[in-house]
Amino acid sequence: MKFYISLIVSIVLLSACKTDKKESEKNKSGVHEVVAQEVLQVKDYTYIRALEDGKEKWLAVPSFQAEVGKTYYFKNGMEMPNFESRELKRTFPTIYFVEGVSTDPNVSTILNSVNTNTIDTNTINLSPKSKPKLEKKAVKIKPITGSVTIEQLYKNAKQYEGKIVKVKGKVTKFNPAIMNKNWIHIQDGTEYNGKFDLTLVTDAQGNVGDVIVIEGKVSLNKDFGYGYFYELIVENAVLVE
Questions:
Q1: Which residue from 98, 135, 157, 195 has the least number of CB within 10 angstroms?
Q2: 163-174: per-residue pLDDT in tens?
Q3: Host domain of residue 200
Q4: Which of 96, 92, 51 minimizes the C-alpha distance to 76?
């Protein structure tokens, strides 16, 4: 009898060790395993309410025929707080955008999700080459010594590429804590070929309506995935005043 008890205990312990090993390998690989609880379809994306280790989370994936009750795997995921979907007429407290999911847990078959920066939270359609819908504000900001205007930046983009510039503008939109960065839109009343908005990636805080002066590096043709493409953006921006 003692022999059988010992054998059973050994089998249980061995099974537990294998399970722990699998869980450890899964965690190290960054693979997430979720079970679909609800599926919502819009024009270009599939929204999935899923459970991962008993916790609920929402995913947004390029359109595919997802099924309730099915298990899916994905890597990383770009977390978006307070994401508003106008197509669904609802705001998600937190949602994860991923480039793709798989029914196969094999890491090599799973698409890497976007892991840099963000999607504008006020944009609803994540269709290819879509852009944030921006509204030009009635602002008129006087440049300061050593600064450039938004018009000058866009007009002479190549000249400023990779360089540190100083810009003064009014905050028209502030999206905090997305991929560990804050995203600020500013306008100064100038424009070039219809381009009047400048996006800043920063650790600094900004309130809509504030007039700020920033310094940052100009980057051109930045593609953050999901069709979100910035012809010009200022990264690593810091507040000067």
A1: 135
A2: 999 999 999 998
A3: 150-239
A4: 96
